[in-house]
Every structure is written in structure tokens, then in C-alpha cells.
Amino acid sequence: MLVTRPTLFLNSSIARANIASMKHKADALGLKLRPHFKTHQSLEIGALFKTYGCDRIAVSSLGMASYFSEEWSDITVAFPANIQEIDLINTLSQKIKLNLTVYNLDTLHFLEQHLDHQVHVYLKINIGNNRAGYPIDADAEILEFCRLARSCKHLHLEGVLMHAGHSYKCRGKESILEVHQACMSRISMLKQLLKEEFPSLIFSYGDTPTNSVADSFPGVDELRPGNFVFYDLTQAAIGSCTENDIAVALACPVVGKQPDGQTIILYGGGVHLSKDVLLRRDGVRTYGRPVFLRDSDWSLMSSECYLSGISQEHGVLKVSSAEFDEIKIGDCIGILPVHSCMTADLMKEYTDLEHMNKIKMYQMKNPC
Q1: Angle formed at CA 184 by CA 183 and CA 186, multiple of 5 degrees
Q2: Average pLDDT along the chain, 368 residues, taken 10 residues at a time
Q3: Within 13 A of 165's CA, how many CA atoms are on the CB side?
Q4: Helices 173-194 and 139-151, interaxial angle, to 10°?
Q5: DSSP state, 196?
Q6: How many CB atoms lie within 10 A of CB 352?
């Protein structure tokens, strides 16, 4: 396998299995699946979801919504609406069913005054992530928002949007389920508050850990996970998946072997993987898990092997003495990423191991 520079490999068989598993869960529970495409950011990979019956998606920016609007007609921007992009909002809302995430009255007023076409709105609710949205117990503010949105000519109040991002702090399925149960309790409270005046609101709930592990979502209408298409080492450490479910690996040429008999230098660093780091249960800090690459897949190296450090272009790989002897200068080693979303965003392209074809990704256009 000839790899001249760091290359992001996609194991499409694993990705398809991940998609199928999540869609089967949603279907079995009578829920809609709205996968978040911020992880793969690719029309070609997005097409895989259509083969499993997905008809709606979420994205993390209006620019990404514009890119995916070529092939998708129902798109939620799961990021607070940016009123500076009102021209793009108007362009997209003429073309597709555009769902915006909003939680400030000022944003609602601005949209109502400047929209040319109807836009669907999801109210952002904070159910424990503490990043953005109305607190779950802000009854008066939530009702005020919903009533104002309902009165707007150009806005349709579609539902409420929630993200259990604090599940990323979990380690183990039991911990994930504790977070999930607390979220379900909060959703029940919210449902009680809104059911009389707003009985038809869609409750959209998403994060990969709880959506992967839990098997009951009372009060939820729509699942919105994203990272599950690829998973990564962080998800494996959380308990969302196993390392065998990870669908991407960064292929890195071997450029050096240190005299200590334990250290391999790779061409692949922070500009390829990002500098996300994972603290393993044994206390070791790692930037990636090495695999031996084969013609159409890969196999894990021994558990004592890990990416111990990265700089801009360098990767420092610690290996056993047996693997040190086996690996040669010019070989190519795969690295399972700590955070697949960031790695994909940096690389901007995949090579599908199954067919060795290139798959392009969304790239933000420079507004200047």
C-alpha cells in the first residue's frame, strides 16, 4: 500500500454497519433519525444514509447547509442562528425546508423582520450540557419564546432541540445511562409544560453516547447523533462503541526509528489529527491508537502501542520491541483518531479502502 503523505482512510463497511445499526434502533422505537453530518461533511458519505431510508439531516453551519442542500431538502442547523448570515438564510429557505436553532428573543425579532420565506424554528433547551439554550426550568421564558414564535408570520415553531453533550464526560455504559435517565426526566418536565399550548412540537434529542447505548427515549420524537458514523477513541473510552467500530484511520508514513527500540517517528501530527488527547484508564495520555493497514481494512496493534506525542507534522509512536522490529522505514501505519470529527475536518478528503477512490468533503468558502 503506497501512501506518500498522511491520508485519511475510510472503512466504508464499518461506516455502513454503524449507520444501519442506528437507523434500525430508531425505526424499532418509532423515532425519526436526523443524523448530524458535521462529522463526515461529505455528500458521498451522506448518500449512504439515503440507502437506509434517512430523509432529513442536521449540520453545524449555514455554509454546510448550503453544501448539503444540493441533495437534501430537510436540514436543521443545530447551532444558534447567526443573523449576520441573513442573506444565506433567505437563499436556503427558498430552496429547502430550513430549520434554525434559536433561543433569544432578539434573534426571533430580527428573523421576522428580515426573512423573505418561511423558516422553521427549533427552540434550544439546555438539558445539562450547560453550553447554550434556555435552562430546563425557565418556564416563563420558554413559554414567552414559544408564544412569540407562534405569532410570527415568517416563522414556524417546529420543536425543541436538546443535546446531552455532558455524556462525553462519562466512562462506561452505566454512567451514560445515568446521564440519559436524567435527560429523559427533564424532557418529561418540558413536555408537561408545553403539551397544552403546543402539543405538536417535535422533541429532537441528540448525542452519540446516549443514542448508541440507551434503548428507550420517552418523550423524544427524533434522534440526532453525529459521531456514530465513524466513532473514535473517545467514544470507545466513553462506552458508546468498541475500537472495532471505528471507521476512519489516518495513514502515516514511517520516517524514523529511534535508538531506544521503542519509538517510531511518523509523518502525521497536529495538522492532520488535531491535538485532542485522551487519558486512558491506565493514566497514559494518547493522541491515537495504531493499527496495521491491510488491503481493505486494518488490525489493532498490541495494547501497549500508542501515539505518545504530536507536533505540527511529527507523530511519536511508542511500540513494543517486537513491533519495533517489524515496522520498517517507509512502511505506513494507521492511527485511529481520538476525535474523528476534528481529524476529518482537517484532512478534507477520504480514501475509501474498499475501492481506493477519493471522497471529497465540504470546504467553507472564503467570504472575502
Answers
A1: 65
A2: 91 97 98 98 97 97 97 97 97 98 96 97 94 94 96 96 93 96 96 96 97 97 98 97 98 97 97 95 93 93 95 97 96 97 96 90 69
A3: 11
A4: 60
A5: T
A6: 18
Amino acid at 174: E
- The pLDDT of residue 368: 38
Residue 188 Cα to chain centre, angstroms: 25
Quote the DSSP letter at residue 36. B
Tell me whether residue 270 is exposed, middle or buried, using C-beta atoms within 10 angstroms of its C-beta: 0 to 12, 13 to 18, 19 or more.
middle
51 CA to centre of own chain: 20
The answer to whether the CB of 220 falls within 8 A of the CB of 205 is: yes
CA 185 from centre of chain:
24
Helices 86-95 and 105-114 sit at what angle, rounded to 10 degrees? 60
- Nearest-angstrom CA–CA distance, 131 and 125: 10
N-term to C-term CA, the chain: 40
Contact 74, 55 (CB under 8 A): yes
Residue 228 and residue 212 in contact, taking contact as beta carbons nearer than 8 Å = yes
- Grid cell, residue 72, equals 437534501
Supply the pLDDT for residue 188: 96
Q: Which amino acid is at 15?
A: A
| Residues pairing with 263 in the sheet | 318
Q: At 279, is the secondary structure helix, strand, or coil?
A: strand
| Alpha helix segments (H runs only) across 52-166 | 62-68, 86-95, 105-114, 139-151
Backbone angles phi, psi at 184, to 5 degrees: -65, -35
**pTM exceeding 0.85:** yes
**Whole-number Å distance between alpha carbons of 291 and 301:** 5
pLDDT of residue 367: 47
Alpha carbon distance 344, 350 (integer Å): 8
Q: How far is CA 183 from the centre of its chain?
A: 19
